[in-house]
Predict the 3D structure of the following.
Amino acid sequence: MDEAISKRPTVHANEPQKYLVAAKGYNKKGLYECIAHKDHISCGCPSYKYSGVCKHSLCVAEKLNMLKGHLQYTAQKA
């Protein structure tokens, strides 16, 4: 899973960390950008925009040991 997720460099120390996550299907670039906030992960994919959760955000949350908090945040938004 680590090969499918890459950390993007940040300019400022206080800005949220961004990750590129490998994608299949309709995305021609083959990547989606996820942003790690303090309590959840957001993603630019259509699934996240529609339902507030997606496999890309779940992968990044798992990698950052934030999965439980991410799922709690998602459940509160629903």
User: Anything to note?
Assistant: The longest helix spans residues 67-77. The two ends are 28 Å apart (CA to CA). The longest strand covers residues 17-22. The beta strands are 5-7, 17-22, 31-36, 41-43.
